[in-house]
Write a structure and sequence with these properties.
Blueprint: H1 24-35, H2 40-55, H3 76-84, H4 90-107, E1 133-134, H5 138-142, H6 145-148, H7 156-177, E2 187-188, H8 205-208, H9 213-228, H10 231-252, E3 254-255, E4 261-262, E5 273-274, E6 280-281, H11 288-308, H12 312-323, E7 344-345, H13 371-384, H14 386-389
Antiparallel strand pairs: 1-2, 3-4, 5-6, 5-7
Helix pairs in contact: 7-9, 7-10, 9-10, 9-11, 10-11, 11-12
């Protein structure tokens, strides 16, 4: 039996791991001394008990209508290969759902340290994307399953991290923008950096200058309250952070010539468009994603203020501002417009479908409440080629916004 203990001197996002850090050697030695006193079967039993405490809370089954279930006897690699070629295998989809939960159970336990792009299984000294947190979808996507599949406690590493990010983001909002509240850009790390990250001067604005991370992450605070009903958490933790994100947006919004409230400059992460002159660009005004994130945050704050019976004046301000938001539009192809104009995409099958935020994970678009926009979202997926790409397997398929990803997690840590 080989015992390995891995520890770190990391002692918080705001502490130097050298002079203020923990004693990693002492921690590792204590762990080894503790476990060497236990037999293998005891350790195994303890591990299984700990893991199943979370895992066994949720069941998910898709019925195999062939009733033969012949794929179940195949190795996973063969099932994935078959699925990518169009094989019918609902059992693999069930397995994938639980696999995502397994990864989250295994990597989201440390307060303030959420599951990152490569998880805890990375073998590189410096991992792809530095094993950071890309918060224009990756980090949020990792945590989409956490409440809906009954793993609410495992949300805390992310929720507490958002609090740290908000503290740093307050300084960035003031120093970079001279605005109130807090802001976060497309990428952060264990130190909760909130400033734009530009790859040593080689960053492209379409990802490096996107500054909507605070609004999107705030959605997780509201979702945790929705599932737990914890008003103490909502009052003392979630609401102040959400309000801070909204205060930045209130400063960031401007009136356009038609009387709408818009953001400018505005981006749709990692995608480009072709303007009326045939030029390729990524910087626009009032992109659908940016406006949808703000709509979602303002709506959640309005509901939170109502639930807490507080901050009426601020609530009314949000209601009035939301009425003036630049609206959603349907393009000439029947798709949901991604930009403020009905422009063509440079890459029509781009893997990001950021403009579907209002459908999922947001709640602005619904087949019941807004059927026309829901149909436009469906058309968007068809144009993007999602049906063809959905069978590409983990790490290749689209994130699945607006689809079954509410219960089918994509925990591939990286490409999606």
């Amino acid at each position: 039996m080989l015992l390995v203990a891995a520890t770190t001197s990391f002692n918080g996002y705001d502490k130097c791991p050298d002079k203020d850090g923990k004693d990693e050697n002492k921690l590792a030695e204590e762990i080894i001394q503790k476990v060497t006193k236990k037999a293998y079967l005891t350790l195994l039993s303890s591990h299984i008990s700990d893991y199943q405490f979370y895992f066994n809370r949720f069941s998910f089954q898709l019925t195999d209508t062939t009733k033969t279930n012949s794929n179940a006897i195949l190795p996973s690699d063969q099932r994935l290969e078959g699925y990518s070629k169009g094989a019918y295998d609902p059992g693999l989809e069930t397995l994938y759902c639980q696999y995502g939960r397994y990864l989250l159970i295994s990597s989201s336990r440390v307060p303030g340290v959420p599951a990152n792009l490569q998880g805890i299984w990375n073998k590189e000294l410096r991992a792809p994307w530095s094993s950071n947190y890309t918060i224009n979808i990756n980090t949020q996507m990792n945590y989409w399953p956490v409440e809906v599949t009954n793993l609410s406690e495992l949300h805390w590493p992310l929720l507490s991290f958002i609090g740290s990010l908000a503290k740093n983001g307050t300084a960035i909002a003031k120093e970079f923008y001279n605005m109130h509240g807090w802001v976060a850009h497309h990428n952060t790390d264990i130190w909760a950096i909130a400033n734009p990250v530009g790859d040593k001067g080689h960053g492209d604005p379409k990802w490096a200058n996107w500054n909507q991370g605070a609004g999107w992450l705030s959605q997780h605070l509201w979702e945790h309250y929705r599932f737990t009903g914890d008003k103490t958490f909502l009052k003392e933790s979630a609401y102040p952070i959400m309000k801070g994100a909204a205060q930045f947006y209130l400063d960031w919004l401007i009136d356009d010539k038609d009387g709408y409230l818009v953001v400018s400059p505005s981006l749709s992460p990692e995608n480009d468009f072709i303007d009326a002159k045939g030029q390729h660009s990524s910087v626009s005004v009032a992109t659908t994603m940016d406006m949808s994130i703000m709509w979602d945050l303002f709506t959640n704050l309005i509901d939170a203020s109502t639930a807490l019976n507080t901050d009426t004046e601020f609530r009314n301000l949000l209601i009035e501002k939301r009425k003036k938001f630049y609206p959603l539009h349907i393009g000439h192809k029947g798709n949901l417009q991604e930009w403020n104009k009905d422009w063509e995409d440079v890459d029509p099958q781009h893997r990001h479908v950021s403009h579907l935020f209002g459908l999922h994970p947001g709640r602005q678009i619904s087949p019941v409440i807004t059927p026309d926009f829901a149909a436009a979202a469906k058309k968007t997926l068809e144009i993007r080629g999602m049906r063809e790409r959905a069978g590409a397997g983990p790490g290749k398929s689209i994130s699945g916004q607006g689809c079954l990803m509410e219960i089918m997690p994509t925990c591939c840590y990286g490409s999606y």
